[in-house]
Amino acid sequence: MAPHYVVAPTDPAGHRFTVTLTVDQPHPDGQKLRLPCWIPGSYLIREFAKDIVRIEATCDGKPVRLRKVDKDTWQADPVQGPLTVTTVVYAWDLSVRTAHLDQTHGFFNGTSLFLAVVGQEDGPQRVTLLPPDDPACSGWRVATTLPRVSGVHHGFGSFEAADYDELVDHPVEMGTWTLYTFEACGVIHEFALTGMHTCDGERLCRDLKAICEHQIRFFGEPAPVDRYLFQTTVVGDGYGGLEHRASTALIAKRDDLPQRDDPPDGLTDGYRSFLGLCSHEYFHTWNVKRIKPAAFVPYDLSREAHTTLLWAFEGVTSYYDDIMILRSGCMKPSDWLELMGRAITRVRRGPGRNLQSLADSSFDAWTKFYRQNEDAPNALVSYYQKGALAALALDLTIRKETDGRVSLDDVWRTLWERNGRPLVGVPEDGIQAIAEEVSGLDLEGFFADVVRGTDDIPLAELLADFGVDLTFRPADGPADLGGRASSVPVEKLRQRGELGARVVAGGGGAKLANVYTGGAAHRAGLSAGDVVIAADGIKVTGTDLVGRLGRRVPGSVVALHAFRRDELMRFRVTLQAPREFVAVLDLSEDPAPEVAARREAWLGC
Ligand code: ZN
């Protein structure tokens, strides 16, 4: 008989699930039980076992000794007959990666609750979900894509997964969520929204339907799922998503959801970003949930699974998420150009882009990208952001060199046919090999420079061939995200002295969040974490420091007083010329006919 887990939200106020696991045929030498230490899609060792606050085992009603073997493994004494293991799990992390329970709702990933029965992971796994006893939680329903065995749709009941890998790939939401439903290419899609909101469900379904259908047709019908669930928790401020094989768990900012009084066709910045998140996670249904690096086949959840390919799964997905919205007609080309300009800006801001390659950023995700400190902009590059630029560059290179016969779309569709539909892990050199095969091009130079190298990608030249002008200018303030022309003439921006640091308000002054390597602040001896309280003897109250320094020309010397910890220090800073990293993209005016044709084939505009 399959391992059977009974999950009960026993203590919503104390944030505790109780999970009772029955193993009918425990290992004769003593059954080992292990909780994963990471969750697929989020590449950080998280030690979920730290949240097990109680664990005990019985057989035939008598206690069985459990010995802790390592940080996340227990071994029971040998027993004759079924072994029952009861765990109490603390669930109070409002993220898509763990578990959360209170009187308003319960959410969990299997990686937080289900101890793997070592040796029985490859067979079926059964789950029974029990409703809470607490009268404060009456009326709760269940949203999950776990395959149901008993109970009504959205009710509590029993479920069965084919193996442990599947068991932990269907998160569960219980509560009084709002449900929206739409059909895409014949597949029912549900959108469950937890938390207080005034979302315009009709608008949301209309847009998501177009985006999902576009993606299904991109890879080819039929869709790889029988049904799909967007499971969203609404909060005042937050953002996050995690992909699963038939669902995604999202955290969204309340104000980012579409509202009834929004303009019918335009996208607010917030809604544009939320649609981007939905599109991103949905694209993962193919790219990383089915087309996977060989290093993830199978997942070893007991330790890091290193691959140099995360850029191809996160970066390429980040490239396609917004393109899919554009091509499905839910976004205007000007929106897309602005978003791409912002992506380029984020990459160009940090000197670390010239120190760490995409391949290294992928491999070291566990210790660098996921564990960033104040020095991160100097030390690393994001495989999401630079990965998206690499995807853009690869797409344009292939389109240009093949005269438009082949594109990155063809490469990813071939990956789907070869490595996704029958699951065959992509080897470390597999992306380059398939891109070369599909395009017929020698891409060694491209991959050496863009994926394994650290030079900036020459995007301006590539984009010009597709009727898009890329220009760079200095930032016009601490809140400048790029992608838009500045209201301040560029010549004036170039006359502003710059500190070479990212400044935020904090600590009673201007706090240096990051100090860029080689910049004016670095050369003057300032450090990230320092709080500047005066410039040339005049009090600084926050980010006004940036504007005040901007009134001085590059080369000016400024005296700054700053606290490091509780000690006052004085610095003489020679302001630098502003760095021109803010990217703005525009459609070229009057492009040559062949350039216009390339742009039309690529962006549909
Ligand atoms: Zn992703």
SSE order and pairing:
Elements: E1 4-11, E2 16-23, E3 32-34, E4 52-59, E5 62-64, E6 66-70, E7 73-76, E8 83-90, E9 99-101, E10 105-108, H1 110-113, E11 116-117, E12 125-129, E13 141-143, E14 148-150, E15 157-161, H2 164-167, E16 172-175, E17 178-184, E18 187-194, H3 201-219, E19 227-235, E20 240-243, E21 247-253, H4 269-283, H5 310-327, H6 333-349, H7 358-363, H8 376-379, H9 385-401, H10 408-420, H11 430-439, H12 444-451, H13 459-464, E22 468-473, H14 490-493, E23 501-506, E24 509-515, H15 520-524, E25 531-535, E26 538-539, H16 544-550, E27 557-564, E28 567-574, E29 582-587, H17 593-603
Parallel strand pairs: 1-12, 18-19, 19-21
Antiparallel strand pairs: 1-2, 2-8, 3-7, 3-11, 4-5, 4-8, 6-7, 9-10, 10-16, 12-15, 13-16, 14-15, 17-18, 20-21, 22-29, 23-24, 24-25, 25-26, 25-27, 27-28
Helix pairs in contact: 3-4, 4-5, 5-9, 6-9, 10-11
Bound molecules: zinc ion (ZN).
List keywords for this structure.
eight-stranded mixed β-sheet, 605 residues, binds zinc ion, 4 domains, Zincin-like, single chain, alpha+beta, Immunoglobulin-like, Neutral Protease, domain 2
**CA-based gyration radius:** 26 Å
Question: How far is the N terminus from the C terminus?
Answer: 58 Å
Output the CATH topology of the largest domain.
Neutral Protease, domain 2
* β-strand amount: 25-35%
Task: List each distinct ligand once.
Answer: zinc ion
CATH H-level superfamily of the largest domain: Neutral Protease Domain 2
* Strand order within the widest beta sheet: 5-4-8-2-1-12-15-14
Mean pLDDT: 97
Determine the number of helices (DSSP H or I, runs of at least 4 residues). Answer: 17
Q: State the major sheet.
A: 8 strands, mixed
